[in-house]
Amino acid sequence: MTTSEIRTGVIGLGYFGSFHARQHAANPKGRLVAVVDADRARAEAVAAQYGALPLFDPRDLIGKVDAVSITVPTSLHHAVAADFIDAGVHVLIEKPICDTPEAARDLIARAEAKGVILQIGHIERFSPVFGLLRDKVTAPITVECTRIGPWKGRAIDVDVVLDLMIHDIDLVLALVGSTVIAVEAMGSPVRAPTNDFALAQLRFANGAVAHITASRIADRSERTIKVVESDRYWVADLAARTVTSFERGHAVLSQDEIAVPPSDNLALEIDSFLDAAAGLCRPLVDGKAGLDALIVADMIIQRIGQTSRRGATVPIGDQH
Asked: pLDDT of 157-172, one tens digit each?
């Protein structure tokens, strides 16, 4: 199959799903044939905008597409994705992969059995800023990630760990390349029924340590990654699109800032997905990567609950 033959669809046309529809419609490697949403007016409006067929039940899309973006609520990821995977359709699921590791493992097994692509929408992996940082960093000692922003009132049914922090969990796992052996965490709900801010510390088998902060009730916006190596300190600003390095071990630090040109990370993600669906490459963020991030996120959420109840943190090995 060549990319020009790929028939695509988008399931779920909420805030982010509408962006998926736009990018699928704009990409010449595929052809957006249909969009799906339970809200008929929304489905019809988006379909008319991009010359696609409006549908209202995801199952009606089976047989009409070769690849789909699934941007429904996380609790529905498994049920919707399983139907399409079993039908031999390539799937891009927005992060997180599922709401439980068990559901994620089932999707991975189904995709392997059917020989279809399962890609997870960890969009920051497609940021050229992160790509440059990952190319430069070789042996992280500590990693510090901050992802904070003001209250927007969206995704309040999802814990901030699964809403925001999971982006940085995935990036840290990609940078460090080692197994998490201990987690400490704290957090709290403030305006939503789930945690609105969270702080986590991850310890890795290779000795590296990561500190991750996420908040959706902050007084400012920040998306940064700071990495300490034996001879250099790196600061990647994902919003300002800069990567700055500081050479260590000298009386005067040597500073070098690299500006990264603007990019549309979602467009890059969908373009990569279509290439993978055409058999031209493997997905950059596959089901296993999505599962790995979800497992760590689940550990963090559990630690927050334990910290709230006991006022202390628990090493992984002490779980019962």
From this structure: 789 999 999 999 999 9
